Amino acid sequence: MAPAPNINPPINVGHIDDVQELRKTKPITVPERYVRDMAQRPTLATSSPCSSSAMSIPVIDLSELVEGGEDEVQREVLKLASSCEEWGFFQVINHGIDKELLESIEKVTTEFFMLPLEEKQKYPMAPGTIQGYGHAFVFSEDQKLDWCNMLALGVEPHCIRNPKLWPTNPPEFRETLETYSTSIRKLCQTLLRFIALSLGLNQDRFNEMFGVTVQAVRMNYYPPCSRPDLVLGLSPHSDGSALTVLQQGAAGSSVGLQILKDNIWVPVQPLENALVINIGDTIEVLTNGKYKSVEHRAVTHKEKDRLSIVTFYAPGYEIELGPLPELVDKNHPCMYRRYNHGEYSRHYVTNKLQGKKTLDFAKIQTQVSTN
Questions:
Q1: Where is the Fe2OG dioxygenase domain (predicted)?
Q2: Are 225 and 342 in contact (CB under 8 A)?
Q3: Which of 75, 167, 231, 233 is the most exposed place for a label (fewest CB within 10 A)?
C-alpha cells in the first residue's frame, strides 16, 4: 500500500531481529516472535487440492487485448471480467515490458538484500512509517512477525518520496527502479482501460478519475526457514490499492504466494516472464463489490529463498471514492460509503495486516431488524 501523509506513529516496538541474520545462524528452533498460533499456521502438504490445475489462476494475454482483432479482444475482455469477478487475481503475459528490464530490477534488488546488514540499515524504516528497510505494519511488542525482510519506497508523485531511503548501493539501483516503475505505470493504465471496458464503462473512466496517481514499490526477500510450517512470510491481507503488480522471483525460487479461493489457500505458480495482477480494495469499492479484492499471503520454504517485487497503484490522495453510479441499482444496493482516498490510506497503514478487515472502514453497516 502506498504511503500516506501525516501518519501518527504507532508504538515503537524497539529492536526487531533481521531474518537474514537469523538464518545465518541456522537455528533449529524458530524464535517465538515468529511462531504463529495454530489457526494461522500454513498447511504445506503437497497433496493439497489447491495444487490441481483446476485451481490455477487465470492467464490474460495483453497482446490479444491491445493488438488483437475484434473477436480476440472480446474474448479476452470476457476472460478478464471473469478473472476479476471470480478470482480477483490473474497473471498477465505478453505485457510489453522487456525481459531484460525484469531481470535488471530483480538483479539490483537481490544485490541490495545480499549487502551486509550495516549497509542496509542506512535506510531504516522508522516506527510509524512504511518506507525504508525493515518490518512494516508492526504495532505492538507481542505482535507476531513475518519471516521476511522488506524495502519499501514511495515512487510517484515525487512528493511522497524520501530520497534518503533510496539505496545508492548497488549503484544502478535508482535508475533501474525509475525505468521499471515507469513501465509498470503504463501497464496499470492499460489494464485499467480494459477493466473499465469489462464493466461496460468508458475505457478512460478509471484513469481520468484517479487524478495524480500514487505509486509505491515494496521489495520482499524471504530467506529459507527451518520450520516453514510455523511461520508466515507475509500475513494474510488484501491490498488498499486499485491494482497491485507482482513480479515473482526467478525460476528455482520457492513458490510462496497463496490466495484465498473458496476457503482454500491456492499457490500461485510463477509463469516465465509473467506478472501477477490483483484487484485492490479501491476497485472493489468503485465496482460496488462486483470485482473483489482478495486475501493473500506468503509462505516460506525450508531450503529455498524467494524474492518478490510488488508495485501498488492507486488514486491520488485527494480523490473522493465510492461505488460508481452505473454499478448501483435496486438489485445491487450501495455497499460502500464515499470517502477520501488519503483518509483510507492513513487508515490502512496504521493498522496491522488482518485479512480484509481494513475494508470495514468503507463498508455501509446494515442493521438487521429484530421485529
A1: 213-315
A2: no
A3: 75
